[in-house]
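*** Fold description ***
***
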Amino acid sequence: MTRRTERRPWLTGSFLDRLPEAARDELLRLGSPVTFPGRHVLVREGDPGSAVYLLLDALVKVTALAENGSRTLLSIRAAGCASPTAGVSTSRGTRPTSAWPASWST
């Protein structure tokens, strides 16, 4: 990701799209941009979770492990969205879902 404060169209209805312009600019200014390599798992189900990611240039799929052991697609997230399960954790302090690059089969 790169630091972006320019005005750009975000995915309609996404977190960044719904923020007032001044709040969005301030949030983007305060954040620390990071870049992940392709095929990198952004968050993994069961891992401790405290970071929140704002997706600036991304397309990720959110999955959860079903009781039968298969991985179930819950949603697709794109630029303007907050990371899946942002600020959410189980009673053990772990993430309830995983987020994968949308172009990578799991």
